[in-house]
Amino acid sequence: MLWILLFLLILVVFGFGFTMQILWWVAAVLLVVWIVGFAMRGRRGGGRRYSRR
């Protein structure tokens, strides 16, 4: 019984670590996309939103 609980604990810890690694990569990709989008909007004259007055 103890071996099964230890095995389940190892699986949970491994799964949590794997999930956290994927979330770090997703966050890095989203940061790069946000920076590229911000730079492209700045190049095109991004003040269009506030010029409605």
Tell me what you see in this structure.
- The longest helix is centred in the middle third of the chain and has 42 residues, at 2-43.
- The chain is an all-alpha fold and 53 residues long.
- The chain contains one helix and no strands.
- It is rod-shaped, with a radius of gyration of 22 Å.
- Helix content is 79%, strand content 0%.
- The termini are far apart.
What is the number of E strands?
0
Question: How many angstroms separate the termini?
Answer: 72 Å
What low-confidence regions span 5 or more consecutive residues with pLDDT below 50? none
Instruction: Describe the global form.
Output: rod-shaped
Q: What count of helical segments does DSSP give?
A: 1
The Cα radius of gyration reads 22 Å
Strand content: under 5%
Structural class comes to: mainly alpha
Q: In which range does the helix fraction lie?
A: over 70%
Sheet with the most strands? none
Oligomer: single chain
**Mean of residue pLDDT values:** 80
Helix and strand string, N-terminal first? H
Helix and strand topology:
Elements: H1 2-43
Key attributes of the depicted protein:
transmembrane helix, 0% strand, 53 residues
Quick take:
79% of the residues lie in helices and 0% in strands. The protein is built from 1 helix and no strands.
